[in-house]
Fold these 4 entries.
Entry 1:
Amino acid sequence: MAQKNSFFEWQNSIAITTAIVAVLAATASFRASSTSSSLLLEKNNANNYQSKANKEWNTYLANDITGRALKHPPDQFIQQTLKTKVEELERQADKATVKANAYFENNTHLTTAGTFFEIAIALLAMATLVKKKMVWLFSLALAAAGLYFLLSGVI
């Protein structure tokens, strides 16, 4: 009778562990999708700023070329304004790219965490079927690795 009670307690431990790992997997998945959206937004912003900078730079060059062709120098104030605008847009593009890279790094950690959690859940199910504690312990190790990557992606 003591053996059945011990087995029942072990099965309860697996069930509780599975529930905890499933919640962590859902959290990692949710955060990964959120950072993925932010990543795409920042990359889009970077492309938009760069496109605007290119347009302003082309206007700057067109004014300069037209002035030289007509032997009439372009208005220096307008040229300086265009140049300043280009520099500001390029700074914004660089800033958005840096943010996108940070989101990419976090997203990589979060998707890795989700993968570890999913494998741990599969092993927890196997531990129940094969009735081996070693499989359960290995799944705990994978869940711990997943937790490390989840925290790396969140922080």
Entry 2:
Amino acid sequence: MNNVETSQVGNDHTAGGGTFRSQLTPLLLVTSIFLLNFTSRLISAPLLPNIEKELGLSHGNAGSLFLFLSMGYFISMLGSGYISSRITHRKTIIISAIAVGAALSLISFSRSLFAMRVSIFLLGISAGTYLPSGVTTVTSLVDSRHWGKAIAIHELAPNLAEILLHWFVWRNILFLVGIGSVIIGIVFVRFGKGGNFSGETPNFSSIRTILKIPAFWILIFLFSLGITSTIGIYNMLPLYLVTEHGLSRDWANTLVGISRISTLGTAFIGGWATDRLGVKTVLLTVFFVTGILTLLLGIASTRWVAILVFLQPMLAVCFFPSGFAALSSISTPENRNVAISLAIPIAFVLGAGVVPTLIGVIADRGYFSWGISLSGVMIMTGFFLSFFLKLSDRR
């Protein structure tokens, strides 16, 4: 890095040395951007029946929208390091927020399949640049002793998004979320803190450095399992409840939505536990318990399944504060964005794409409950893999 970049990193780390409470306001502002960013990517799923009906799409064409979103997100996240290395993490966050808002507004005005595909691909491109810079900024705002709590606050956003999407409908909410994203991006220009330093360009040297860390490969797999236990199961759960347990579609969606309310508290508890007990202890506990609950979700009777629908996500979301703290601890502030932009796209494709697809394939053969239970067994492998994770014990 040049002298200016070194000075900027130093300034950010000085800010990070303050008390956790003093950094709470800028932390919540970054979290608000993440809320709208994550909402923009989740919002298509519950709105898909309405979109399909209004635009006259086949199921295949409607499903292709997720492919275009994932393609844009994957490409953008892999290339995010090139952007943040040139314009700083702070500016990357601002541009992502405004671009997400513009893309959502385009989707809300789309009247054809082609326009929808182009707009949703642009949404993926816009959203993918945020996460590496967002997490890097969060960890630069507060001392490493408080990373668990800070990332827990940051990770409240996906849980809030999942809850809110069950009470709104399609074109208006897309437009309003888009406008909100633009506004919060502008507010961050004036009041936001942190991230005022450049990321490391993901050149072969920085990538090779990350790839040589054994814990990095373990964390890719753990993140895949963590995403499986949350987004992967979330995507398939309403269909499972309707198909296997005879619930109405409205009641299944409402039940899944309400079950996410409890995750707002448990995500923060997971962050607190990470700071107090250490990353490894939390990971071992989360994977073991979440794996068992997911396994039971596939074999329980209808009488008990509603209870498990509430319990499973409460524990599952506790992974992410520890997971991101672990990923941050094996990297430096300069190459942290590289580690995140390498790990998360792979984990997202596996946990939110491949696993739900496999569950669907198994369900097509009449064994939907087996697919859910096998996912639980797979999640439980994270318990054993966590033993091999070499991290410094941060308390």
Entry 3:
Amino acid sequence: MSQTSTVPLETRLRRFFAAFSPAAGDADGFGELFGDPFLLADDAGARPVPRAAFLAALPRRAQLFADAGLGPAMLTDLTYDRLDERYVLARTDWDAPRVAGGEPVRLASSYLLHDDGDRLRIVLYLNHQGLPGA
């Protein structure tokens, strides 16, 4: 077991979600942000997802955004609760810009993150709503 990081949790979370953002553009490093498998939950229920299957589905997700007339979502709000020494519940809001202009679409997600002291990994990814028109 590793030592607990001396970097404040809020700083670590900001760095984590900066790497998680679609704008980061690092598809190779993106997979390392997830446990394998992790639990994906949405309005259809919850299911375990192998990391490789999730990464393979990302181009389709990008296409769903494009089909809905949306650009890549940007993190606008992050709150969190440390649940215990190893787990953090992060709640996020994201704004996806409308390609044709107008108010962005607000998306909300929550994440249960495992904290091994060195790195954070998503073990539960909860989407609170789907894309408009998707």
Entry 4:
Amino acid sequence: MNSFEEVTQWLFSQLPIFQQQGASAYKPGLDKMLAFTEMLGQPHSSFPSIHIAGTNGKGSTSHMIASVLQENGYSVGLYTSPHLVRFSERIRINGVEVEDQFVIDFVRQHQHYFLTEQLSFFEITVGMAFAYFAEKEVDYAVIEVGLGGRLDATNIVSPLLSVITNIGLDHTEFLGTSLAEIAAEKGGIIKTGIPVVIGKKQAETKAIFEELAKQQRTTLCFAEEVNVPSISLDLLGHYQEENKRTAFTALRQLLGDQLDERALVGFSKVVQNTGLRGRWEIMGNAPLIIADVTHNKDGFVQVIPQLESLEKAKLHIVLGFVQGKAIEEIFALLPKNATYYLSAPDISRAIPVNKIEPLIETYRLNAMTYTTVIEAVNAATVAAQEEDVIYVGGSTFVVAEILSERAL
């Protein structure tokens, strides 16, 4: 394997990837990750980190924190998942993706270990990120949890600060069927003596987090109780206001008096500084085309009012979903006055269109189905007039396909 494409294709084809396969690829537990990083020389112990979990908003919050730290003059590693277009999006320093050659060398050097120890795709990418950040001697690393928290591969870090954005009913097949159960799993990132910020105070989860903080003898702060100054933000989704509050609270906890007006400019330069994409991203005008990775009920509760508030003649909504999502709850929220274009993203976890068709009938939506996401988007674009709005979402992988198509 001599090229980046060959290496990444090997990773995708040879190893179990949760985002493609779902439950069969989910391998919780930290033993293999601890052994892997021991073999690598404990790279995660060589840099200060901020660890971020949550159901919605953890990616945006991670990018906001990284952007502000960059504006404060720090070298900032950022690990997030999944990627949208290129594998290397997962690992960045000051917004610049990991070099292709580092990925090639890392995989070639440790390929035998990966196979012998049967590491998951996610464990490999986390270890790769830690090794890269250590080699580049970052000042901070912002580490986003992949799934859950307690048993997530990232949970071997001993961070300066733990952040949990919010709790919703997502990935219930792994994390529990109640908000309290899911909070206990995500709260597993709370560690002894390490302060924790909770983005959203929820009646069902508040006591869980307070008890975990008490057990770990650490301080707990709810971002909703913090007064946030007027801060300009370059991310357009209304749901980002909650994430902004969480990020500000975390940064104030982390930086104290160093969180000055100069650093806060980072909130207005998140896309520029970190390369964040797919969050209420404007892909075109006349008609207005919005790509957004919102993929569960809690997300759509916030997205739909913003969509309905836009000035437009007609609303066109392109959607596709993956397994593990309570899509009937999403369909119950969808506006009846929109035209829908439904398809399945090109991954094995996708929900086939024929499984969605009964919901079209149940909720009496004006909907058409298509073989691919690109066909659905193209159909919406042809049907829409200049004064209309097209929204593309339902899954990270739907947005990934439209971004990849536009990148060609």
